[in-house]
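Structure request: Syncollin, Nannospalax galili.
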Amino acid sequence: MSPLCPLMLALALVAVPGAQGACPVPADLKDTDGMRTCAKLYDKSDAYYANCCQGAVLSVEPGADLPYLPSGWANTASSLVVGQRCELTVWSRPGKGGKTRKFSAGSYPRLEEYQRGIFGNWANSISGLYCKCS
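Returned structure:
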């Protein structure tokens, strides 16, 4: 086996979709008081996973039901992390309209990689959400 094979395998594993990058680990999602956070949405992502989950942050409490996102957040999120034992349901239009998708616990550093219909993706497409934890 060539000495380059292990190196190529390592590079391939780093570049797979779903890689965590700079995103926090779902188990670490807590607010400043140590209370559980259901999800965090970020307004920055990048072609390099190490630069994802950056910029402004919208922290979502367990049980949050936001058919209309706070000012400046509609169609802004491009990375997100969902806490352990939580599920985030998102909609593409305000008032819980349009396309919908459920994100289970995990890191989603590049929402461009998740399809929203035939031609779209979820980057800059979230206009409403509901987050629940068990």
